[in-house]
């Protein structure tokens, strides 16, 4: 692992069977477009880890950077009736990470994770590594193994 990475990124990978290749972009990778530009990949290869509230339950939706989350589809996949974006405090409480740097796994609580099958268009994909300035590539098989998502069309 890169020596000069933020503590949040280091913490993300402490207890997982995965050797990350963390890239640090001081200018930030807050949006999928920012991340794709910094990395030099297609926007579709970016994993957006979005935290939403479904009927009072925080859930994480993993969607490709070129697509938009369908909140009705997410609510249905989660067995709920209504989904809305989680507040910044809810994001941090549920995942242990700040919005804009939320990784697809390694969360502080056992939140359910939903992944859109469109992510499989690219392999590997790039995800946030715990901060808005860090990202890492991950194969779809490792993403599936570590995030343990429920695969559902949520875009």
Q: In one word, what is the shape?
A: globular
Give the biggest sheet: 5 strands, mixed
Strand residue percentage: 15-25%
Spatial separation of the terminal alpha carbons: 33 Å
Please count the beta strands (DSSP E, at least 2 residues each). 8
According to CATH, the homologous superfamily is YbaK/aminoacyl-tRNA synthetase-associated domain
CATH fold category name: YbaK protein
Helix and strand composition category: alpha/beta
Describe this structure in a few short sentences:
By secondary structure, the protein is an alpha/beta fold.
Give the SSE map:
Layout: H1 7-13, E1 23-24, H2 32-39, E2 47-54, E3 57-64, H3 71-77, E4 83-85, H4 88-95, E5 112-115, E6 125-128, E7 134-138, H5 140-147, E8 150-151
Parallel strand pairs: 3-5, 5-8
Antiparallel strand pairs: 1-7, 2-3, 2-4, 6-7
Please describe what this structure looks like:
- With 155 residues, this protein is α/β, with parallel strands linked by helices.
- It has one domain (7-151): YbaK/aminoacyl-tRNA synthetase-associated domain (YbaK protein, Alpha-Beta Complex), CATH 3.90.960.10.
- It is built from five helices and eight strands.
- Strands 4-2-3-5-8 form a five-stranded mixed sheet. A three-stranded antiparallel sheet has the order 1-7-6.
- Strand 2 and strand 3 (57-64) form a beta hairpin.
- The N and C termini lie far apart (33 Å).
- The mean pLDDT is 94.
């Amino acid at each position: 692992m890169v020596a000069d990475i933020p503590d949040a990124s280091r913490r993300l990978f402490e207890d997982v069977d995965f050797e990350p290749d963390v890239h640090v972009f001081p200018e930030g990778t807050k949006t999928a477009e920012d991340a794709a530009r910094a990395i030099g990949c297609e926007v579709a290869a970016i994993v957006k880890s979005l935290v939403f509230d479904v009927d009072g339950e925080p859930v994480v939706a993993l969607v490709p950077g070129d697509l938009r989350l369908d909140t009705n589809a997410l609510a249905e996949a989660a067995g709920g009736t209504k989904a809305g974006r989680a507040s910044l405090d809810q994001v941090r409480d549920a995942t242990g990470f700040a919005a804009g740097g939320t990784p697809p796994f390694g969360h502080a609580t056992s939140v359910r994770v939903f992944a859109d099958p469109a992510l499989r268009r690219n392999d590997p994909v790039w995800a946030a590594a715990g901060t808005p300035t860090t990202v890492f590539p991950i194969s779809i098989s490792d993403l599936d193994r570590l995030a343990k998502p429920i695969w559902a069309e949520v875009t």
